[in-house]
Amino acid sequence: MSAAMKNDNIVVRSLAQIGDCALFLLRMLAAVPRSMRHWRETVRQLWFVGAMSLIIIMVCGLFVGMVLGLQLYDVLSIFGGTSATGTVVAIAIYRELGPVVTALLFAGRAGTSVTAEIGLMRATDQIAAMEMMAVDPIAYVAVPRFLAGVIAMPLLACVFCALGIFGGHLVGVSWLGIDNGTFWSNMTATVEVVKDVINGVIWKSVVFGIVVSLIAVFQGYTTPPTSEGVAYATTRTVVASSIAILALDFVLTAFLM
Amino acid sequence: MSQRQSYAVGTGLFIALGFAALGYLATQTTSVANSSRGPSYTVEAHFANIGQLKERAPVKVAGVRIGQVQSIVLDPGKETADVKLSIDKRYDQIPDNSVATIFTSGLLGDQYVGLQYGNSKKSLADGGTLALTRPAQQLEEMLGKFFGAGGVADNLGGSYSVKGRFTNVGSLSVGAPVKMAGVAIGTVQSIQADPVKLDAEVTLSIDKRYDQIPDDSAAAVFTSGLIGTQYVAIQPGGSPDMLKNGDELVLTQSAMQIEDLIGKFLVSGSPSAKPADGGKTDGDKH
């Protein structure tokens, strides 16, 4: 890290960041067995990054589903195909919007606070104090937050998708008058468990959970111990997570299709 | 301690909610919801053409789903598809002379098997066969029937070829109809550029039934409608001799290019209007 900071070349610096990040991931994975002693901390973090993110995820899922229903009904009515609204809402949410929007919201809601919290711990020497007390900060601070993010992301994505379907149903069936049976039967006729729910929602969101949590914890853990450094680290978490999510989304889609 | 308890309970609730959502997504909104619940029995139907029918497509009676397509295989040694239908045990009163038809839901929708009840007293049993089937209606065929009157002539009675030379065939394509009095009497067989005469040599294949066409008839490339496809129209002449195989149509009229037409239309009269006159005085002159 310090060697990378001195070098001005942006390519070398980025490469060093990625390498540091990967090494940090390995250190965390190695510390997972040790962190099992602190499982209560993992539960507390799961509460913080998962359960506390529920409201924003649910509200956003509902509105994404509603706006999809509205837009699709408008376009599909040109072709007399409004009965496909449910299908397209479900497929769009499962394959793309569910995992991606959840991950972006997760990075903004949970990732930033994780970065800021760990960064402030670093800036106020709490992490150094832990090392002094022979408490492994990786096992006690980093791993619980990382694991909590990885567990929370797919669950949040599922909640997002369910609310999205509900929103699409609300607009399509309750407001715009698509037949309820048509809505569901077309959806169930087209959407597949493995391709859409498992590959689309679960795998994508697990990968996004790993990436976002890794970036958030890493940025917090390696932040320069100043208030400015914490601010930069928080910003970088959002920027790097967003880019990583959208780029990985393309790669994952290409592989999982 | 109570603080920690509330964390644990809330986290547990969150995990339970997440898994409940997953279960809901997986079972209620996907094809799993369609997999037949409860006992079912299987009947066979042989279709000449299944179109886009897929496995797990619904089987419906009067629009109500009673089962699904279990498998689709080609009958060994025959040109028919063997479709196995898995029908819910609750619906075991289907007459054994019912007609199975492949329908399409909507114009672009998925295809499903519809059963129309016959009048037999006997019901279909497990492993039974629906003898009466109607294959999928191919959209192309339907459109063909619809627009086909005057479309492409069927070449059942054989045909003979005549040639025509056009300075411009426009976007005439091979297979385009040849029409006389609006009725299709043949097709365009080939279009070739003549490297010496620098025009297009079009070979027309005309149905043998129409062998009374005077040999001084004219051929013209017309367009059906404003943006329609182009076809060759034969305008009969007055000669007592008839066109024979290999003859050439001497009188031809090339395709009208819409650019030319518009150009003629816009440009006519423009030579008198000099640009130097300016726009304002232009109106006064007229």
Kindly list the characteristics that best describe this protein.
heterodimer, A: about 260 residues, mainly alpha, B: about 290 residues, alpha/beta, 2 domains, eight-stranded mixed beta sheet
Describe the protein's topology:
The complex is a heterodimer of chains A (257) and B (286).
Chain A lengths: L1 H5 L3 H26 L3 H12 L3 H23 L8 H39 L2 H7 L4 H39 L4 H11 L2 H29 L5 H30 L1
Helix pairs in contact in A: 2-7, 3-7, 4-5, 4-7, 5-7, 5-8, 5-9, 5-10, 7-9, 9-10
Chain B lengths: L1 H27 L11 E8 L10 E4 L2 E11 L6 E8 L10 E6 L6 E6 L12 E2 L1 E3 L4 H10 L10 E8 L10 E4 L2 E11 L6 E8 L10 E6 L6 E6 L12 E2 L1 E3 L4 H10 L11 H7 L1
Parallel strand pairs in B: 1-7, 2-6, 5-8, 9-15, 10-14, 13-16
Antiparallel strand pairs in B: 1-4, 2-3, 3-4, 5-6, 9-12, 10-11, 11-12, 13-14
Short overview:
The complex is a heterodimer of chains A (257) and B (286). Chain A is mainly alpha-helical and 257 residues long. Chain A has helices at residues 2-6, 10-35, 39-50, 54-76, 85-123, 126-132, 137-175, 180-190, 193-221, 227-256.
Task: Explain the overall architecture.
- The complex is a heterodimer of chains A (257) and B (286).
- Chain A is mainly α.
- Chain A has helices at residues 2-6, 10-35, 39-50, 54-76, 85-123, 126-132, 137-175, 180-190, 193-221, 227-256.
- Chain A is elongated and about 70 Å long.
- The two termini of chain A are 38 Å apart.
- Chain B has two domains: 40-134; 139-268, no CATH class.
- In chain B, the strands form two sheets. In chain B, strands 7-1-4-3-2-6-5-8 form an eight-stranded mixed sheet, with no helix packed on it. In chain B, strands 15-9-12-11-10-14-13-16 form an eight-stranded mixed sheet, with no helix packed on it.
- Chain B is elongated.
- Chains A and B meet through helix 3, helix 7, helix 8 and helix 9 of A and helix 1 of B.
Rg from Cα of chain B: 33 Å
Task: Please state the average pLDDT score of chain B.
Answer: 77
Q: In total, how many domains does the architecture of chain B comprise?
A: 2
- Anisotropy-based shape of chain B: elongated
What integer is the average pLDDT of chain A? 89
Number of separate strands of chain B: 16
How do the SSEs of chain A run, as a string of H and E? HHHHHHHHHH
Helix content of chain B: 10-25%
The total of helices of chain B stands at 4
Instruction: Measure the end-to-end span of chain B.
Output: 98 Å
Low-confidence stretches of chain A: none
Largest interface: A-B, 38 and 33 residues
Quaternary? heterodimer
Strand share of the residues of chain A?
under 5%
N-to-C CA distance of chain A: 38 Å
The portion of residues assigned to helices of chain A is over 70%
